[in-house]
Amino acid sequence: MFPVEPSHMDSPLLVLANARILTMDPARSTAGRLTVRGDFIAALDGTVPEGALVVDCRGGILLPGFVDPHVHLLAAAAAARSVDCSPRAVRSIREIQERIAATAAGSAGWVRAVGYDESALKEGRHPTRWDLDAAVPNRPVRLLHRSGHAAVLNSRALALAGIDIATEEPPGGVIDRRLDDGEPTGPLMDMDAVIDRVVPPLPRAELVAGMRAVGDVLLAAGVSAVQDLTHTNDAARIDLLERAWIEAGLTPRLLPPATRPNVAGDGPVKLMLGEAGGLSRAQTDALAAAVDTAHAAARQVAVHAITAEAVGAALDAIDAAARRTPRRDHRHRIEHAAVCPPPLAERAAALGVVVVSNPVFLWESGARYLRTVASDDLPHLYAAGDLADTGLTVAAASDTPVARPDPAIGAHAATTRRAATGERLPGNGMVPEPALALVTRHAAFAAFAERDHGVLAPGRRADLVLLDRLPGGETPPAVWWTILSGRLVFAGESAPHFPTSAPGPRPG
Questions:
Q1: Is the dihedral of CA 214, 216, 219, 224 positive or negative?
Q2: φ and ψ at 216, to 5 degrees?
Q3: Least enclosed by CB within 10 Å: which of 17, 313, 415, 490?
Q4: 333 and 408: one domain?
Q5: How large is the angle between the packed helices 73-80 and 204-220, nearest 10 degrees?
Q6: 143 with 116: CB under 8 angstroms?
Q7: Does residue 466 sit within a domain?
Q8: What does the pLDDT look like over 398-437, one tens digit per residue?
Q9: Runs of H (alpha helix) within 197-304
Q10: Strand pairing category for 464-467 and 479-484
Q11: Is residue 484 in a domain?
């Protein structure tokens, strides 16, 4: 796979032919050819215009550019500049120690590491402060869990964060402790606010380099637009994100990001539910108040809810707000809804709620789910097809850096319910075309971006992705081309030839 430096050509017309074109437009679902004039789609089918350059798509699947409506870009950029301790890179705590020690030897300040998964480690447990101390004794270390909801600090980092045997857990947070004396062992759950106070931000050059790396991954995955759903976004953080995006020279389009409550913005209000140990009355009351305030202010809400209990609480809050202040097409969202049985899905559909699911998690973590998730819940786990069958609008997202932002793999997992290991999770898969709608039309709809993204039609911007095959079967589809505003910005190793004289209008 390789990024492409686009060039311009004399003719402004480009015809993509010999493709199976899935427009994702209910008014016209397929086409045989697509004509691009400048930045935009000029026609579907019809005659080939005189002077047009005809490009052979070699039987590939041509779709609207993918939309990922739930990402964490600053975190993903930071992860790209951190020590990779994911299951792809390490298989034991010893290997984690070796990798962070090697990094510490050539740098100063905090050691940042990301992506560990205790279930994939030989020891089958979380690393501890003492494991990290053995590798890096005199500098602070932060090792993030692949979920983004836990971190392990070494002793130096715990001291800087002011966490010791007498420290009380903050609301919703958990400090792992030794049973015999209560001493913190290093792992912290849902305590970002505490940790972020002491971990310095990445230097600007590092952040921009990380953002550029994230952009390369997005283009290689066919992603033409993303929406940041970080719950701590305030005006300063959004400004940092947008400036870093521009400095990195990225071409995927940045949709209006989510904000914290009481922060102005055009994106949704992101609301979190800390679900460890179940929900308290105080949590559900606070959620109801926050949803009511945002709804009354004509803002969309996006509620992080994993369990059926949390999904039900989110629906209760949305229902109450909608009854108090009726509003058409509020399009409130529930993010993740990992377990959402049919009665809850039917209720969500009746309320006009959109669920942004994560079927890509089945691919990346399916083997672990089979070992750790209750058998009664497995058929409902990220079951996008069953949710859609109730009439609910379902989109799919990566939650990167929790998972790699690869919508084709997400659609494949929604279709097959298979993990990367080959194991199949129980439950019903989807038909390929509806699975692709999760990452195109429905993803754009979830972000209020359907006017510009998600379907192929004359007059729309020519943001396109060409896959080698439909999702399903043994292996996920590969991205052959990513085209933004009629410009080829990525080509895969086995992609059809795309003429160097193809048009190259400015993505914007």
A1: positive
A2: -60, -40
A3: 17
A4: yes
A5: 100
A6: yes
A7: no
A8: 999 999 999 999 999 999 999 999 999 999 999 999 999 9
A9: 204-220, 235-247, 281-296
A10: antiparallel
A11: no
